[in-house]
Design a protein that fits this description.
Length: 278
Amino acid sequence: MNTTLRLKTLSLLISACLLAACGGSTTEESTATAESATAAAAAAPAPRFADGTILFDRMPGELGYWGNPSLHSLMEKGVEVPMNEQGILSNIDDAAKVAPFMDWSLALYKHRQANGLQDDPVNVCISPAGPRHLQDPKGFRMVQDRNLDRVYLMFGGGNRNWRHINLDGREPPNLDEVQSTFFGYSNGHYEGDTLVVDSRGFNDRFWFSNGGLPHTPALVLTERFTRTDHDTLVYNVTINDPRTYTRTWEAEWTLAWVSGDIEEGFCEEGRPLAGVAQ
């Protein structure tokens, strides 16, 4: 919450307390006033550029980033399957509910779950990518570079990696003509206040979700970023990988605005150095 909103909220709360002390309202009315003030501050509108475009990053003089995801792993929208923050299912028998798997991908997902995610590439400092980056506990920023017509996603975790989204109107690449990469190729455009991004051209050397959901280089993501108010970012992604899943499917979660500067995290921190006696 920025300074102006804090002052406005404090003023309304003080007014409510003074009314109650002076007999100007009942305790119930004062409580309702205070609650309304808090709700109004929490629902402050999303900031915008001068031309009306939604600002996904911090305002001038403000520190903050996106974090605290409401989900910790990809899961089909509308499905509720208990799992921990690493994406390990509470009950492995729920595996088939998570996504519309093919037989082979369900078997691989259950294998990864059963062995406690020991094969996770992040264990050897291969960075996560795709939607998984947007569930990292260290958060991320969305920096809109209007000179180069790009958006940069800057990640606190995963070795402080970043990816960029082109907004210059270029067509998505033909997957048969490009080298697959960890972060793929992302092209975006605005639909109203939503940033819509086509992401494709991924390799399969990383896990694109906590918990070990499989994917292949045929993966295409349609990502939608919507800042519904100052403190809330809604992320929606459509997963299309016809080699891994029986149909396209959606996942969605929210992220909260976290005051302060983005945290920094490196995979190598705390890891023993190769060839050095411990």
